[in-house]
Amino acid sequence: MASKIRFLTDEHFRSAILNGVRRRLPNLDIVRVQDVGLRTASDPKILEFAALENRVLLTHDARTMETHVKARLATGRAVPGVLIIRQKVPIATAIDEIVMVAECSLHNEWNGLIQFLPL
Questions:
Q1: For a designed S-S bond to 81, which of 54, 56, 61, 73 qualifies (C-beta 3.0 to 4.6 A apart)?
Q2: What are the extents of the domains in the chain?
């Protein structure tokens, strides 16, 4: 049986989006860096945790996170995927996009990818 996608949000991910996703998909496996002891961790440490836990990272940080992801991929290290939602994206749109990804994707479909949402 194919395994479901799992998510990790970084420190500054908008709580309104996270809460909306959790309301729509209460059984979704999604954790915040704050929940796993990585509240002030660097982007590379967050990416390492995401890789170890096979979690797609949700972030608003296009400026620095994209650079760290590309550096990690260039050295052959795993990245289970990063979905970047720009701050200007309406909350409802961001929720819809994440729900769509969660319902229509398997965990390995995003490996090594950086994707901006909305699609």
A1: 56
A2: 7-17+28-117
